[in-house]
Amino acid sequence: MQTIIVGDKLAEKLAQYLRLDVITIEERVFPDGEIKPKLKKEIKADNAVLLLQKRESENINDYLIKYFLIARKIKETVPKLIGIMPYFPYARQDAVFEDGEPISSLYLGELLSHILDVFITCNMHEHRKKISDLFRIPAYNLSLFNDLAKYFNDLNPQETIVIGPDREAKTFVDDFCQNFPAEKIILAKERNTKTGEISFSEKNFDFQNKNIIIIDDMVATGGTIFEVATMVQKAKAKTISFVFVHPVFGDASVESLLKLNPQKIVTTNTIENSKYQLDINECLNNFLKQELKI
Ligand code: R5P
Predict the structure, then answer these.
(1) Which residues lie with the beta carbon below 6 Å from any ligand 1 atom?
(2) By CB count within 10 A, which of 4, 178, 243, 260 is most buried?
(3) pLDDT at residue 203 in the model
(4) Which of 3.30.530.20, 3.20.20.150, 3.40.50.2020, 3.40.50.620 would CATH assign to domain 3-144+279-290?
(5) Are 257 and 276 in contact (CB under 8 A)?
(6) Overall CATH class of domain 145-266
């Protein structure tokens, strides 16, 4: 069975890890915004793995349409297509919050299920819906938090507390603490759906002499981490660090947190940025080899 990797620079790196051939794509954008992605070579293989990373300045909808078009093209000649989308967009719209809204993550999962045979993503926001609720094909949501713990080997877990901003972050904190057995605190974040304002019910902590690691799946506006960090600073923490998987605005997501003077900011390259520590190819490579026998 011949497998080929298709995609961008991240895909080229994955191909090196897996020692497989790669076909890259080029793309053209027309003045009206239409996108034409093009395979640089014809594909002849039994399996293809499509990996595209959302570029830092790329509009998320342009990314999605490019992914869809190139995936559909590959399926014309390749019987089995494994689609890897490191950051799955629209995942937070996983319910009807107000009448008239779409369940965007579900509709996107349905669409991709028509083209792909297998879907892989990383730390998709599984709040009200699991990945298996969205896709009609085998779909995997890989957690990167176990791997992210290795960047804290210099901290003593006994003197450290790992904090998740909301109930949903519990799984992230649990995964992280498998490799970093520190005390855990899961806060109860409330977000006003009209104003976006964030608040927490618990406020009166004492973190003197403690290192604090705040963990979340993504940083978008930075509002969530900023609120937690402000509370942690008031509680007199010794140091404060941030760990998150998806820098939604690339470098700007990381930079927005620098004003909080963290000891460390640790993130990944699910979305293009220059500040990441963990290359997701390390995890994708292991998963593809061990679980999918690529
Ligand atoms: C929400 O539940 C997510 O897990 C993140 O906490 C949230 O999306 C982060 O967004 P922001 O940086 O805009 O607060």
Answers:
(1) 125, 165-166, 168, 216-224
(2) 243
(3) 72
(4) 3.40.50.2020
(5) no
(6) alpha beta
